[in-house]
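Sanity check. The docking grid for dinuclear copper ion depends on where the pocket ends up, so I'm generating a full predicted complex first rather than guessing from homology. Inputs follow.
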Amino acid sequence: MHIHRAEKIWLIFAVAMMAVFLAVITVGALFDGLVPPSRIETIDPTKVSQTPPFDKPGLHQVARGVYEAYYVAHVFAFDPAAITVPAGSRVTFYVTSADVMHGFSIPETGVNVAVEPGWVSSVAHTFAKAGTYLLICNEYCGSGHQLMAAKVVVQ
Ligand code: CUA
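Predicted complex below; grid placement will be based on this.
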């Protein structure tokens, strides 16, 4: 098979680029602590149900209009299944997985993080408008993935 010289040069260039990208990711992962961007801390994924505060998932009021919500994602549900906050509340979500990788997304709010076993993901949002917000898993996690949802009720 004849390969044109210019084509050879580009082939070598493309393969070299891939090698460089792979090297950058590998070095980042091994030596530079490359981790999920929204992660704040680690957790033993086999002991989520015994690890505070995830042993009692739910909503906690920190101050007036300021809340923290602790969620455990597992196949195929979120715990808690529903929380209720007053309109104008700022809610910081802390989410971890008890099994596989999940997503944590509230469409049209900017809340959208990956939930990886072993990590606690965090994201905050101020719910200015009243309504019922759907919280969904947007990372394919198995046969019941499409059923994995919860509610945030803003009154
Ligand atoms: Cu959990 Cu998809």
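Relevant for the grid: Helices lie at 5-31.
Also worth noting: The radius of gyration is 21 Å.
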